Amino acid sequence: MPDFNRRLLPLLGHSGGSRDAMTCLYRCGNACDHPAPNGSDNPYLGDVVNAEMTRRGVVRAGAVGAMVLGFGGSALAAASPAMAAPVETAPLGGALGHGHHPQKAGKLTFETVAPNTLDQVSIPAGYRSSVVIRWGDPVVPGAPAFQIGNQTAAAQAKQFGYNNDFVGVVPLPGCGGDRALLVVNHEYTNENLMFPGFTTLDALGVEQLKIAMAAHGLSVVEIERVGRTGEWKPVKGRKLRYNRRITALETEFKLTGPVAGSALVRTAADPAGKIVIGTLNNCSGGVTPWGTVLSGEENFNQYFVGGDGAPADAKPKLARYGISTTARYPSDSRKWDRAQERFDLAKHPNEANRFGWIVEVDPFDPEGRPRKHTAMGRLKHEGANVIVAKNGKVVAYMGDDERFDYLYKFVSDKKYIDSDAPWARKHNLTLLESGTLYVAKVTGDSDPAEIDGTGKLPADGRFDGKGQWIKLVSGNTSFVPGFTAVDVLTFTRLAGDAVGATKMDRPEDVQPSLRTGKIYAAMTNNTNRGVGTNAKPDEANPRNANKHGHIFEITEDRGDHTGTGFTWQLPIVCGDPAAADTYFGGYDKTAVSPISCPDNVAFDSAGNLWISTDGNALGSNDGLFATPIEGKERGHLRQFLTVPKGAETCGPFITSDDKSVFVAVQHPGEITGASVEKPASVWPDGGFAKPGVVVTWHKDGRPIGS
Ligand code: FEO
Ligand code: CA
Ligand code: CA
């Protein structure tokens, strides 16, 4: 490998761990400056639950049914035969006939992109990329042209929002794989970089707060393929039936599941506890086999004030979710109570309970209320990704992105119907409304004395072991002593504490491979691991002060995604490959790229693992990486793309014809001291920085990565 791939670059002014101080403030309310909210000592679980786990562990093996899916309702039936092995399906191009030639696993031949600090999207030779859409571009018909000096909440509510994170591409039925709906999360806003003349958050006017609220949420944008290439552009000049903005400001959401209507979510504005205004801090997500998008409400804590005035019995629960209960105005609060009183917990203590859910958006129902599924639990949800189990139930894997928090899975009560008939889709839309929620507990198979915190492999040569999915709640039945079902679902973190779940190093995106059925979770970092009185390293989180993160691979026992037993390994322990504490599946480390802070994971049709990063602590810009994950090439990880200065790489989304990879460039130029007038990045248009979505394709139409 060329020497430049391993050259370390000077740090870019990152504070503390690996993220810029400005990102820490705006994205997660300086979470790293506070003690991690998980203060539990995780007592072991009672016999009742263990007995239940044992019983369930023997069911379902050998069951038959459809395995999973790519994306999109239509064309799905033709593309997903009932079979026990995972399938590559794929409405875009593949089943619809534009020469879909799935790659063979292990054939990643692109030219490695070197670490760099350039203010551009860097891609391998032979590839092309373009901006699909960026902050301020029109989404809803009638949206005014963006003017940074003349922003209004009404305009922003029709324009593409700020800080794009998750990217999903849902094919439009009957369009030959050439038209699709791009669904994007807008996680948070950075007012320093949005408003000319910004001084402090306190000095923002109410209209500016409302602009920020309108810049949160999601966008649905109809896009079309450019010619026969892998490039995509927004559709213009046609009736845009599905284009939509969903915002924190005014979009109504319906609560579903056991918590809907309960006392914990009733407020003065919604005494029935069923309709919530807005969604907050939507980070990552997933596309379901029935063509909807799931979106995780993550760091919702930073939007609330007045936790000091909340009822005494609510305070420990608020604190477990990172909300201050000692200060009215925590220094990192966005103080949105100045625009909408509901964000004041002293007056409306239940409002916080209405955020932290998995949201399901049906992009084909532009007038409908998106739903918040309470049966899937309330955490700082990174996202959710669904696989159809052998028995037809759907299983969603989820991470709670906080230091020392947990991994979860949800198993539906009902079974997926593999049809795009309207009646079948109507049924599938209810799958996430009822089911069983589990949290992960893992153990290593090596002597704990061998896990010394340095990252040194134990004598058996692998960080690996076994795990159990501990049942927390099923429908209205709680399996956690002292908790009702509504308690478990609303205060899921505390339920995880009570059953002794395993404290992980910030679980971000969790995604099943549709080719192997194995599940991959990004542990992005945890600089508190093993520090002071914090939890010590264990085989699943083996490094002290884990700056660079690792990948956690789960293999469900007997390939049964609805079961309760699994084995696990760490295929990649990130960092500088020249450092002794890194591991790349046993592959020759001189041939891999440095990688730090894995955040999002995805797969191409060959089953290669793609990883995007957030917070490179090695001094380079963030990027997108790819590696085969099976066979001799397992761990041969190389950098495919880098994003501009100050940005993280989000998405990624690879279309199932493998012709296009979408990434979201989130918070370009977010470096302390930057402003509109003094930008640290001018990507993509010059002048000042704008978050935006980029598509990359091979100039000859070859599969991405070849
Ligand atoms: Fe929004 Fe977990 O990153
Ligand atoms: Ca081991
Ligand atoms: Ca993330």
Q: Which hetero compounds are present in the coordinates?
A: MU-OXO-diiron, calcium ion
Which regions are unreliable across 5 or more consecutive residues at pLDDT < 50?
Answer: 1-17, 43-102
**Residue share in helices?**
under 10%
- Mean pLDDT equals 89
Strand content: 25-35%
Instruction: Indicate how many domains the architecture comprises.
Output: 1
Rg from Cα: 23 Å
CA(first)-CA(last) distance: 17 Å
| Count of strand segments | 32
| Principal-axis shape | globular
Computed structural class: mainly beta
Largest sheet: 11 strands, antiparallel
The DSSP helix count reads 10
Protein name: Phosphatase
Region (Disordered): 526-545
Pfam family, one: PhoX
Describe this structure in words.
- By secondary structure, the protein is mainly beta.
- The protein has one domain.
- 9% of the residues lie in helices and 26% in strands.
- The chain contains ten helices and 32 strands.
- Strands 13, 14, 16, 17, 18, 19, 21, 22, 23, 24 and 25 form an eleven-stranded antiparallel β-sheet that branches. The chain has a six-stranded mixed β-sheet with strand order 8-7-12-11-10-9, with no helix packed on it.
- It starts with 20 loop residues before the first helix and ends in an 8-residue tail after the last strand.
- The relative contact order is 0.17.
- Residues 1-17 and 43-102 have low confidence and may be disordered.
- One calcium ion is lined by residues 283-284, 382, 508, 599, 614.
- This is Phosphatase.
- Residues 526-545 are annotated as: Disordered.
- InterPro entries: PhoX (IPR008557), TAT_signal (IPR006311).
